[in-house]
Amino acid sequence: MLWWLVRTKLYPHRQSISLIIVFQVISVLCNLWLPSLNAAIIDDGLVRGDEGAIWSKGGFMLVVSVVQIAAQITATYFAARTGAAFGRDTRAGLFHAVGTFSQREVNKFGAASLITRTTNDVQQVQLVIMMALTMAISTPIMAVGGIVAALNEDVQMSWLLAVAVPILGVLMGFLITRLVPGFRALQGFLDVVNRILREQLSGIRTVRAFVREDTEVAKFGAANHDLTTTGVRVMRLMSLMFPVVMMIMNLSTVAVWWFGAHRINDGTMQIGSLTAYMNYLMQILMSVMMATFVVMMIPRASVSGDRIGEVLLTEPSVRPSDTPSDIESISGAIEFDDVEFSYPGADSPVLAGLSFTVSPGETLAVIGSTGSGKSTLVSLIARLFDVTGGAVRIDGHNVRDLPADALWGHVGIVPQRAFLFTGTVATNLRYGRPDASDEELWDALTIAQAADFVRELGGLDAPIAQGGTNVSGGQRQRLCIARALVTQAPIYLFDDSFSALDLATDAALRAALAPRVRAASVIIVGQRVSTIEHADRILVLDAGRIVGLAPHDELLRTCETYREIAESQRRVEASA
């Protein structure tokens, strides 16, 4: 998966990678040339006393060093740019992929995990790519070139290479095979910590209201302990790598000086050759060490790459049609034709056998016990989910065949959980229709009974915090209702959007709303009978099935489920 991700996202940057390879090769060749020049200066200049050789070969050595430095800087610059571009493109790809997901895929991964995959996981892979482009290209060239150059200097001492390099490789492989499962567990625990922290920050009021601070601290502490314990175990293994490499390098250095000194004493080796051999051995072992640093990061990057690829390769369950209907406008006629919907792995469907119609200008209310499928019904119209049986049609067209922009652009939806975005009142209201005028915004606010408190906040430019946390629940609902009204859509879906309103505000809002949506198809999901009793028809759900579909007065006579709901609410109001 990591290789697929790297190949896919780096292909557009192949020209930069070609430049990196060219400059890395130049840098390595210069690096391999320097020890032989240094040996020549020692043997010809210092040992034989040829001052001219010192100046000529020393000057040439300086030029080669400058070229090597310039090539390495250029290669590193392009590697940094390419790595940053990979991170940018991968994050954009993840964001786009998540944007195509239905609620089913979002629920499958979880918001906390998707955030971690888009940030931390991308960072891990980006870091490996930058290290690989900087070192992994030059490392094999330097290792092979160093071995050839060392053999050229002295063949008899080559047994040192045959011993040191395999030992180092075996030890590194042993450590790396134990790092992979550790990194996989580490990323999983990081997801858990992010999820718990996100929950606690979002629900801080609930935590304090129920005096559960100690419990939540303990829950976070347990997750943090698991993350820390796993991290420490993995880092202990990683910390062994550098000492192992340095031990092999130092032992090799001692061995070279020891056996080289005997060969110089015997007259079978020059001092310059020994110095060059030592430099080549250091280059070989250093290239192994650099490769180790890259390989050390690969296990974690591999885990991160799998997690990123899992998101990018997930096919959304709600997909655009291969043959979309050619439709310019929507009048708003809604039809449910024997609709069934089941969540993956569920034993029984959430909705089954739903057949009804909603005509333009008609208001249909939906009521039922908790878990009866009311919100799911609304989601099927907006195609947040796809039906698993039957069909949902708008103006006679199956919603599966409608282009997504055409469908969503003609639906004004107020979700059950009122959510506002960071910005101002105006930017939130214009979310579905950016060209709306200020007069249209105030008109929508007036209908939603939100104009007064918006003026108190400071008008349309009043700031809104993330999620709308700086306004009350009822104010959030009214702003969301106003946002839907600004779209001037032919279909309005209100998913339990009046629950946080007091009865007086609820009545005033419904009275002001009726003339505005007179020509539209309106579906209102409600819990209070007083909110929905004036609808043209009321659909009663019980365990995902229709048990009543008629006006309020008729349902009181014919539908036992609806009558029980109405009587229970009436008793509660009377006792209050």
Structural summary, described in words:
The protein is of the alpha/beta class and 576 residues long. It folds into 2 domains: 2-312, ABC transporter type 1, transmembrane domain (ABC transporter transmembrane region fold, Up-down Bundle), CATH 1.20.1560.10; 334-575, P-loop containing nucleotide triphosphate hydrolases (Rossmann fold). The chain is 66% helix and 10% strand. It has helices at 2-10, 14-47, 51-100, 103-109, 111-136, 138-153, 159-202, 204-209, 213-266, 271-312, 374-381, 404-408, 425-429, 438-447, 451-457, 473-486, 503-516, 529-532, 552-558, 560-575, and strands spanning 334-341, 351-358, 363-368, 389-394, 397-398, 411-414, 423-424, 463-464, 491-495, 521-525, 537-542, 545-550. Strands 6-9-10-3-11-12 form a 6-stranded mixed beta sheet, sandwiched between helices. A 4-stranded antiparallel beta sheet has the order 2-1-4-5, covered by helices on one side. It has a two-stranded antiparallel sheet with strand order 7-8. Helix 17 links the parallel strand 9 (491-495) and strand 10. Helix 6 packs antiparallel against helix 10. The longest helix has 54 residues, at 213-266.
